[in-house]
């Protein structure tokens, strides 16, 4: 392009930060520079992307505007800074320069994403890449799971083991092509490939792996498939025998299993999908989305896929391998490749060792997974996507928060659904879903991932925040890290951190009324909290009100065995005059229940809890939905599912300005059971009563303490029925809840970090 001699020539240095590496940003810069006839250079470095560009002032401004307007699919620009530089008279072209090394990294990377439309077309039509399961370009493909270190270049990924062929290299260097500087670029000639094995590592097939695998699944086999971030265990969701066999081998008797469908049409046949749910399901992140069953569906799944659950966890293919492998009408169970309670397996040797007795065959590729990632799980509540688990597709993208000060903080999260967090300034990096820390295998994963984040993003924490629970492994690990690094470790209260996670997301300094409803959290008075109304401002909180106390007979056992607390409510209400229907209920109790029953009728002291989660479990147990949990919230999920389309009635409850007492509610439920009322009616009546009671208690406290904003968080608020009823009954002030992180303990670290940023020491 010719430059008008009357126009001012300038040279600008432009610094871009955010997610600008590995997303096609340099190709975009190069394309626009060439298009506008500008000279200069661009490179990735430790801070992001740096551009020096020279030309007419008007063209430079056009360049800036074009970059902002035409951002690549995966790009997230958080800042753009322009500096005026000295003109270089001898420069004649625009080039892409190598990344300088040896500097402290302060940039971010994008998450792994599903194939873009261009790659999907190529997967079907292109001769070189037809059905190639590792197809990618600058707009899609693996990122976090293959990156060893930054800056993001091929030699610092696990693709360094696969030198590009001449054709791939030509694409990689083509300024106008969509694979320009696409670091994972490969084809069937030079890239990774899949092999089908038996559990003893005997090769079954290397040529027709797709047909053979499909046939095996159709015949009822269980296949361990290595994907983007780890292994899945896969079988046909329509095959009752295969699903039951998978449950038995994996030791997962009741918890719902996720399903991958081969097409959107198949998903629409299985479940009801709203517009927001459709956007979430088909987005480039491709999470598992919890969707309401279509009971009129012609596709009959095994009843063992999601027992006692009105929702199905559905996901669409999120890698080229899935696109190639799954028939369009497929509905396959695709659950994490691990033993129940362990982290997802990603190392080949370990997978063969630990899944050898679970899987009948292994479909394995030869590209190393550097960092494991489990699938993300999302549900839509009140027309907004809400995380149940934030991991693949979203990690490690930062969450922007208005954090005071520039101190780097490591927040350790909880022992349930663990995810840690650390920050670089106001950008918070919430780690991937680690899982529950009762198993030693998850301990090593947590330590490794924290160390990886510190190295990958050049973060040196100056402060550590832990949960105040004295027995949490995460808290002990935080103390150990703090001691070895000689930095302060500060415990914060569990429910305060829940509310702070909402405050961090929505930039609420306070005062805020926090409603924290979950299973259990350590209370500073030594009791178990879990139904709290807190006044929160900065790093301070005050307990204003709470749900009534009820004992946890047998302590921790009462968490996994809800019949224990249910029996207490029964004895507390009926004494020795137990109605016949509950005498039958007692006859189904586990062996040895009589000993506990005697203790309940004595003066023996018991741990007290204000837990809303335990309340849901108790009501579910009293309605005959189960005595013992085999997974977290099992009976509460069954209770929500029982509601159906019933309208329900408002039951009795008491509130005295300090204690919200649901004891009359539980007694009304028992009376309803004795009278033979519909269990569905009673279930929805319970949800309705809790929702209205929470809203009315909040309204009273807001008026008394002059509060406008309310934040709700905690695992109980994953209950769609409860939250929808709350929004319907809400009539004063503004109600906020989690959107960027889960409301369960998976979002706790964000709140811990936010509180830590308000602590001056």
Structural description of this entry:
This protein is α/β, with parallel strands linked by helices and 761 residues long. Helices cover 32% and strands 22% of the residues. The protein contains 23 helices and 33 strands. Strands 7, 8, 9, 10, 11, 12, 13, 14, 15, 16, 17 and 18 form a twelve-stranded mixed β-sheet that branches. Strands 30-31-27-26-25-32-33 form a seven-stranded mixed β-sheet, sandwiched between helices. Strands 1, 2, 3, 4, 5 and 6 form a six-stranded mixed β-sheet that branches. The longest helix is centred in the C-terminal third of the chain and has 27 residues, at 679-705. The chain is globular. The mean pLDDT is 94.
Task: Compose a concise summary of this entry.
It is built from 23 helices and 33 strands. The strands form five sheets. Strands 7, 8, 9, 10, 11, 12, 13, 14, 15, 16, 17 and 18 form a twelve-stranded mixed beta sheet that branches. It has a seven-stranded mixed beta sheet with strand order 30-31-27-26-25-32-33, with helices on both faces. Strands 1, 2, 3, 4, 5 and 6 form a six-stranded mixed beta sheet that branches.
What is the C-alpha radius of gyration, as a whole number of Å? Answer: 28 Å
The total strand number stands at 33
How large is the count of helical segments?
Answer: 23
Beta-strand residue fraction: 15-25%
Terminal Cα separation, in Å?
58 Å
Q: Ranges with pLDDT <50 over ≥5 residues? A: none
Mean pLDDT: 94
Largest sheet: 12 strands, mixed
Helix content: 25-40%
- Shape summary: globular
Give the structural class.
alpha/beta
């Amino acid at each position: 392009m010719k430059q008008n001699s009357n126009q001012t020539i300038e040279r600008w240095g432009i610094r871009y930060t955010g997610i600008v590496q590995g997303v096609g940003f340099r190709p975009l810069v190069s394309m626009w520079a060439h298009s506008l006839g500008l000279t200069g250079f661009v490179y990735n470095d430790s801070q992001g992307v740096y551009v020096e560009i020279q030309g007419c002032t008007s063209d430079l401004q056009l360049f800036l505007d074009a970059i902002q307007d035409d951002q690549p699919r995966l790009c997230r620009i958080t800042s753009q800074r322009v500096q005026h530089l000295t003109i270089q008279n001898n420069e004649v072209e625009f080039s892409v320069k190598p990344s300088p090394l040896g500097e402290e990294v302060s940039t971010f990377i994008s998450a792994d994403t599903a194939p873009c439309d261009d790659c999907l077309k190529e997967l079907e039509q292109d001769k070189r890449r037809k059905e190639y399961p590792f197809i990618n370009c600058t707009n899609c493909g693996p990122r976090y799971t293959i990156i060893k270190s930054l800056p993001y270049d091929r030699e610092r990924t696990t693709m360094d083991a696969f030198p590009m062929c001449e054709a791939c290299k030509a694409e990689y260097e083509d300024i106008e092509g969509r694979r320009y500087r696409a670091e994972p670029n490969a084809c069937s000639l030079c890239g990774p490939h899949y092999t089908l094995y038996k559990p003893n590592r005997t090769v079954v097939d290397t040529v027709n792996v797709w047909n053979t695998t499909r046939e095996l699944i159709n015949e009822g086999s269980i296949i361990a498939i290595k994907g983007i971030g780890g292994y899945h265990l896969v079988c046909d969701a329509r095959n009752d025998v295969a699903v039951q066999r998978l449950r038995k081998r994996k030791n997962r008797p009741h918890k719902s299993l996720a399903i991958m469908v081969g097409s959107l049409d198949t998903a629409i046949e299985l479940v009801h999908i709203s517009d927001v749910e459709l956007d979430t399901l088909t987005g480039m992140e491709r999470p598992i989305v919890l969707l309401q069953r279509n009971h009129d569906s012609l596709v009959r799944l095994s009843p063992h896929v999601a027992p006692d659950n009105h929702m199905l966890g559905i996901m669409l293919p999120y890698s080229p391998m899935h696109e190639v492998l799954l028939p369009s009408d497929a509905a396959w169970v695709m659950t994490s490749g691990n033993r129940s309670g362990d982290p997802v397996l990603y190392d080949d040797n370990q997978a063969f060792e630990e899944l050898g007795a679970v899987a009948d065959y292994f479909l394995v590729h030869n590209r190393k997974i550097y960092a494991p990632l489990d699938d993300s799980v999302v549900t839509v509540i009140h027309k907004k996507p809400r995380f149940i688990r934030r991991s693949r597709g979203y990690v490690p993208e930062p969450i922007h928060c208005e954090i005071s000060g520039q101190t780097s903080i490591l927040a350790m999260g909880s022992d349930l659904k663990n995810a840690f967090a650390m920050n670089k300034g106001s950008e918070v990096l919430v780690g991937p879903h680690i899982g529950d820390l009762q198993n030693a295998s998850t301990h090593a994963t947590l330590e490794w991932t924290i160390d990886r984040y510190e190295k990958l993003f050049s973060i040196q924490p100056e402060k550590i925040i832990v949960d105040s629970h004295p027995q949490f492994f995460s808290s002990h690990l935080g103390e150990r890290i703090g001691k070895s690094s000689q930095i302060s470790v500060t415990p914060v209260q569990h429910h305060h951190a829940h509310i702070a996670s909402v405050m961090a997301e929505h930039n609420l300094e306070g005062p805020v009324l926090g409603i924290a409803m979950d299973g259990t959290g350590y209370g500073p008075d030594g009791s178990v909290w879990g139904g709290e109304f807190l006044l929160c401002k900065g790093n301070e909180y005050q307990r204003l009100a709470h749900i009534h106390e009820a004992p946890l007979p047998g302590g921790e056992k009462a968490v996994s065995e809800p019949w224990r607390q249910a029996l207490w409510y029964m004895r507390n209400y009926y004494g020795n005059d137990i109605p016949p229907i509950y005498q039958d209920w007692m006859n189904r109790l586990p062996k040895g229940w009589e000993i506990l029953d005697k203790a309940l009728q004595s003066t023996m002291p018991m741990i007290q809890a204000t837990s809303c989660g335990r309340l849901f479990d108790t009501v579910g147990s009293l309605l005959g939905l189960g005595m013992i949990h085999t997974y977290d919230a099992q009976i509460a999920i069954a209770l929500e599912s029982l509601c159906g389309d019933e309208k329900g009635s408002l039951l009795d409850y008491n509130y005295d300005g300090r204690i919200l007492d649901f004891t009359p509610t539980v007694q009304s439920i028992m009376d309803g059971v004795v009278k033979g009322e519909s269990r569905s009616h009673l279930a929805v009546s319970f949800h309705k009563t809790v929702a209205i009671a929470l809203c009315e208690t909040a309204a009273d406290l807001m008026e008394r303490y002059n509060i406008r904003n309310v934040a709700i968080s905690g695992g109980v608020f994953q209950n769609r029925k409860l939250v929808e009823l709350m929004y319907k009954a809400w009539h004063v002030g503004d109600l906020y809840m989690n959107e960027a992180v889960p409301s369960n303990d998976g979002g706790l670290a964000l709140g811990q970090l936010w509180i830590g940023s308000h602590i001056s020491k």
